[in-house]
Design goal:
single chain; Porin; two-stranded antiparallel ribbon; globular
Length: about 400
Amino acid sequence: MSLKRGACLLAGMGMLLSSSVTWAAEVHGRSSTQYQWFTDYFTGNKQAEFGEYLNLSVTKLDQAGKLSFNGYGRANQDVSNGQGLNGRLYYLYGDYNDLAGMVDIRLGRQFVNSAAGSALIDGGKIDLKNVGPVAFSIMGGRNVIFNLDGEASSGHDFIWGVAASLAGHQNTDAELSYFMKLDKAGVARDQLGATFKQYLFDSVKVYGNARFDMTSEVFSEALVGMKYYPSSDLVLTGEWYQSYPIFDNSSIYSVFAVNRYQEGVFRVDYTVNDMLGVNAGYNRQIYGEGDDTDVYEVGARIRPMEKVQLNLNYDYQHGYGGKLNGGAVEVVFEPTKPLEVAGGIDYDVYQRDRATGQETARKYWLGGTYRFSKTLSASLRVEDNVNHQYKDDWSGRAALNCDF
């Protein structure tokens, strides 16, 4: 199924390029040809594959510039384990904007997102705007589900939803939405959602969102937060978040008892000057039944000279799940304008419980990017993971990127 849709993408590209001659359309995008090697954690085998990633945008197909097409997909060829050719079409849709000055229409494979839910669909979305203080959206189509080998959607998988959002207010955003997911058993998800954002006094942002599951009659997600900017160099952030695991109504997991998760966050980010920036944070994680965790984090961004940047991060975790004590060091160096090289080390010492004792996990990585021109670049990244499972787990990616 994925390869057939990939062929459709290539055919669509041909038609779009032909249209560009007739309508003087503009074609932009990126082609990324990659070679990757890594460990397949499902089989434990080393994997190596070539891949082609294509992102394409075609605009100005009509005189008014209202019609456009966008597509993104990939094809990968395994060269080590005989798994053959595999492809995925992530999106391919057409946009027509400002129909009668009030309607935007999008048709095709696309990602739809609202406060109540999100999905990748083969279908459509219609936005109604410029009709007053409230804008409306309706969306629906076949639910696209990927598995390891391609697509796993059936003829019964559908998504639809509606949303109403506040329009015309520069400092205020708000949305109410409804989302339904269908499968072969009937209604799999039935959800309401809301989101809100308000700017105050040119120095405060208050925000929040919530998602309510109508079948189980619980809030599956809720977030409230505030950011305070006393100056352009200082940002104070406070958030409270909770989630309650929700499964499809047809899933066996929907009958299992689960705990509510809650999290409180406080974070400070301060830019001292062009050479130094620091941050610190505290995170309280509450898992229910008396299980909780405290997480402390500090970091710094240091630029000792114009072409060198050093990023440091340290975190300490104690409580449910054991202890973790570790940090990361990353160095970015730009010896010449077209060349950037970087490397880093992650080092963690952790103890799951008293019986296991202390263990370590390390990651070493090195990478770089070279720009041959404004439209052509090459990049390489290699990393090695050393932990209780792997003595040396090498992986990497080499890519040639062409922008057009």
